[in-house]
C-alpha cells in the first residue's frame, strides 16, 4: 500500500507563532488533500488559552503532538523574553528529533518535508537525516526578512571592530540592503539584547542552507522589498527558494462568533456603518497605567464610538503574554469611565474575536500595535489603522504602514501619548480627510490581497501552487 505523504510542522511557543503556520498548512492541504500534517508543538510554561481554543477546530488531517513544557527556570537567569522562544526550541530538540524519527519510521506514512517557524529553525538540521525537504515559515513582512541580509555586512564590521578591541554586533551598524526606507522610525529594540541579536544572526545564517523560505506577505504589498530580496539572493548565489504566499490570515471560526465574543458582535450590529474604532494591542501588548488613563480619556473626548480590548496595565509592554484575569478585570480604568461612555463604547476584558470584528461593517478604524498578523487582518478587511507600536518589530511595521503604504496615521508622542493628541488623531482617522485617504488606499490593498490569493493566476496563489508541486514531486 502507498504511504501517506506527511509534512511535519514545528511552530514556536506562543499563539502568534502557532496559528500562522497552521493556517498556512490548511492552504497547503487545499492543493493536496491526500497529504497529512503533523504539528509538533513546543510549549513554554503552558499552552496559552488562545492556542488551546484555536487547536480545537483543526481538520482531521492535521494531527497535533504536544511536547512537555519547557520552564524558564531551566534557562539561564534573566534571559530576554525575545530569546526565550528560541531557547524553548533548543531545549526541546531531543524530543523533536524523537518525534520526527517515529514519523520517518512509520509504515503508513512518509516524511516529505519539515516546515518550522523561524524561531524553531534549529529543528531543520534534522531534515537531512530523514531525507526531507526543509523550509522556514516567517510570519512577518518581507521587510523583516530583508534584515537577514545584514549578516555579511555586519560580520565585516564585527571583524573590524574586534581588531580595534571594540564590542561587535551593534544594531546601530546594521545596513538593510533590500529594505524600503523605514529605518528612521527605529529598528526592533530587542536586537539590543546580545542573546536576541546572536539568535537573529543564527536564523540569518540558517536560511541560506535550507530549501526555502515561506513569507506571509504578497508581491503587490511589498513589491520593492521582495524584488530587492530576489536580487540579493541571485547576487549572492543563494540556492534557497523564496515563496511569498500571503496574506494568510485566519478565517474566524464560528466558535469565536458564538462564544463569549458574541456580545461585542451583537453590540456592533447596533452601530452605524464604519462608525466604530476597534482598539487592541495583539495577543500580549500592554500599556502603563498612565498611558491607559490617557487613552481612555482620549477615546471619550474624541466623541467617536469605540470597541476596546483592555488588559490590566503594566510597565512591561508585553506583560499580557503571561497575564491572568483578576476578579474585576476592568477596575484599572479611570473612575466613572465605563458609566460615562456607556452609549459611546464597549470595553472587552483581555480577548475579543478580532477577525469577525474587523470583518464587521460597523468597524471603520483599528487602533493597533501593528503586529504583522493584525496588520494583515486589517488589510484583508480594508480597515485603516492608527499605529501604536509597542515592541519587537512593530515599529518597522508601523513605519511601513504609515510612511510607505499610507494606510495608517501615527499619533505624535514623546513618551506617553496625551489625551488631546489621541482624541485628535481618532477624529482624523474616523472623519477627517487623512482618514478618508487612508481608507481608500486600504480598500485598494484589500482588493489586491484578495486577488493575490483567490484569483486563478494571483501572485501568491501561483507561488503556493509551485510550492505544492515541489512537495508532490518529492512525495
Ligand atoms: N487576537 C485576537 N483577539 C484579541 C487579540 C488578538 O483574536 O483580543 C489575535 C489577532 O487576530 C491576531 C493575533 O491575535 O491574529 C495577534 O497577532 P499579532 O501578530 O498582530 O500580534 P502579537 O500578538 O504577535 O503581538
From TrEMBL:
Q: Mind listing the UniProt keywords for this protein, alphabetically?
A: Glycosyltransferase, Transferase
A Pfam cross-reference name: UDPGT
Q: Does the keyword Manganese apply?
A: no
Q: GO molecular function terms here?
A: UDP-glycosyltransferase activity
- Entry annotated with the keyword Transferase: yes
Q: What InterPro entries does this protein's entry cite?
A: UDP_glucos_trans (IPR002213), UDP_glycos_trans_CS (IPR035595)
Task: Name the source's superkingdom.
Answer: Eukaryota
The record's EC number reads 2.4.1.-
Q: Which PROSITE patterns match?
A: UDPGT
Which family is this sequence assigned to? Belongs to the UDP-glycosyltransferase family.
Q: What is this protein called?
A: Glycosyltransferase
According to its UniProt entry, this protein's organism is: Senna tora
Amino acid at each position: 500500500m502507498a504511504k501517506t505523504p506527511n509534512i511535519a510542522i514545528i511552530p514556536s511557543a506562543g499563539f502568534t507563532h502557532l496559528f500562522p503556520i497552521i493556517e498556512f498548512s490548511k492552504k497547503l492541504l487545499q492543493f493536496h488533500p491526500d497529504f497529512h500534517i503533523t504539528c509538533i508543538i513546543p510549549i513554554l510554561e503552558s499552552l496559552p488559552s488562545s492556542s488551546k481554543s484555536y487547536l480545537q477546530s483543526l481538520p482531521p488531517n492535521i494531527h497535533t503532538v504536544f511536547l512537555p513544557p519547557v520552564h524558564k527556570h531551566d534557562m539561564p537567569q534573566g534571559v530576554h523574553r525575545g530569546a526565550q522562544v528560541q531557547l524553548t526550541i533548543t531545549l526541546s530538540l531531543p524530543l523533536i528529533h524523537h518525534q520526527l524519527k517515529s514519523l520517518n519510521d512509520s509504515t503508513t506514512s512518509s516524511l516529505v518535508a519539515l516546515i518550522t517557524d523561524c524561531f524553531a529553525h534549529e529543528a531543520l538540521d534534522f531534515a537531512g537525516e530523514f531525507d526531507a525537504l526543509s523550509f522556514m515559515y516567517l510570519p512577518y513582512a518581507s521587510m523583516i526578512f530583508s534584515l537577514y541580509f545584514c549578516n555579511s555586512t555586519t560580520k565585516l564590521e564585527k571583524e573590524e571592530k574586534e581588531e580595534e578591541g571594540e564590542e561587535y554586533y551593534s544594531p546601530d551598524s546594521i545596513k538593510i540592503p533590500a529594505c524600503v526606507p523605514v529605518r528612521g522610525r527605529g529598528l526592533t529594540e530587542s536586537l539590543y539584547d546580545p542573546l536576541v541579536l546572536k539568535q537573529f544572526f543564527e536564523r540569518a545564517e540558517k536560511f541560506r542552507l535550507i530549501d526555502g523560505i515561506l513569507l506571509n506577505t504578497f508581491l503587490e504589498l511589498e513589491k520593492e522589498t521582495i524584488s530587492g530580496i530576489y536580487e540579493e539572493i541571485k547576487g549572492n548565489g543563494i540556492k534557497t527558494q523564496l515563496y511569498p504566499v500571503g496574506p494568510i490570515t485566519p478565517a474566524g471560526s464560528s466558535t469565536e462568533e458564538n462564544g463569549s465574543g458574541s456580545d461585542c458582535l451583537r453590540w456592533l450590529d447596533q452601530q452605524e456603518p464604519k462608525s466604530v474604532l476597534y482598539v487592541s494591542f495583539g495577543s500580549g501588548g500592554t500599556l502603563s497605567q498612565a498611558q491607559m488613563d490617557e487613552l481612555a480619556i482620549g477615546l471619550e473626548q474624541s466623541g467617536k464610538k469605540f470597541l476596546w480590548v483592555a488588559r490590566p496595565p503594566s510597565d512591561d509592554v508585553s506583560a499580557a503574554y503571561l497575564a491572568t484575569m483578576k476578579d474585576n478585570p476592568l477596575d484599572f480604568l479611570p473612575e466613572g469611565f465605563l458609566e460615562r461612555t456607556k452609549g459611546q463604547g464597549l470595553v472587552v476584558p483581555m480577548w475579543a474575536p478580532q477577525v469577525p470584528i474587523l470583518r464587521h461593517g460597523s468597524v471603520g478604524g483599528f487602533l493597533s500595535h501593528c503586529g504583522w498578523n493584525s496588520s494583515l487582518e486589517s488589510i484583508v478587511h480594508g480597515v485603516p489603522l492608527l499605529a501604536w507600536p509597542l515592541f519587537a518589530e512593530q515599529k518597522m511595521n508601523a513605519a511601513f504602514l504609515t510612511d510607505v503604504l499610507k494606510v495608517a496615521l501615527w499619533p505624535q508622542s514623546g513618551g506617553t501619548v496625551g489625551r488631546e493628541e489621541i482624541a485628535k488623531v481618532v477624529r482624523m482617522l474616523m472623519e477627517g480627510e487623512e482618514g478618508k485617504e487612508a481608507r481608500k488606499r486600504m480598500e485598494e490593498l484589500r482588493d489586491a490581497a484578495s486577488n493575490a490569493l483567490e484569483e486563478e493566476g494571483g501572485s501568491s496563489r501561483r507561488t503556493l501552487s509551485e510550492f505544492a508541486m515541489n512537495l508532490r514531486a518529492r512525495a
